[in-house]
Amino acid sequence: MATTSLLAGLLINEMTSQGLSVIMDFQLATCPYCGNRHPKLVHRLFGNRVICTKCHAVGPDRKSGDLARYDWNRQSRELAFEKSIKNQQLLAHLSRLSRLSR
Ligand SMILES: [Zn+2]
After folding, report:
1. CA of 30 to the centre of ligand 1 (A)
2. Residue 28 · residue 39 · CB < 8 Å
3. Domain range spanning residue 59?
4. How far is it, in rounded angstroms, from Cα 86 to Cα 91?
5. Is the pLDDT of residue 96 over 80?
């Protein structure tokens, strides 16, 4: 999967003239809060973090851009997983309720 997105990132890189930043942005996971597919990695004086340009969610501050990206992606996966569990529990609950009301 990482290889696929890297290849796609390289393809996009060839189509644009924005260089490495396009590849790095492409490898960032979708924002877990609003679904924005293009969060940005921001380099700051005392750290790096990923921010969502739509809902302004902020990833953890890390020493390197790679770490900031890694933690953003991990957080995104964990929140998506948690959301899917909650949805499954809600569906099971609704299904029980509808069986009871018959
Ligand atoms: Zn967002």
Report:
1. 8
2. yes
3. 2-100
4. 9
5. yes
3-class SS string, 73-98? HHHHHHHHHHHHHHHHHHHHHHHHHH
pLDDT, mean over the chain: 80
Rounded Cα–Cα distance for residues 69 and 56 (Å): 16
**Residue 52 tokens, joined:** 């969502």
Q: 37 CA distance to ligand 1 centroid (A)?
A: 8
Alpha helices in the chain (DSSP H): 2-15, 20-26, 65-100
Domain count, the chain: 1
pLDDT in tens, 22-56: 444 458 999 989 999 999 999 988 899 999 999 99
Cα of 93 from ligand 1 centre, angstroms:
29
Q: What protein residues have CB closer than 5 angstroms to ion ligand 1?
A: 31, 33-34, 36, 52, 54-55, 57
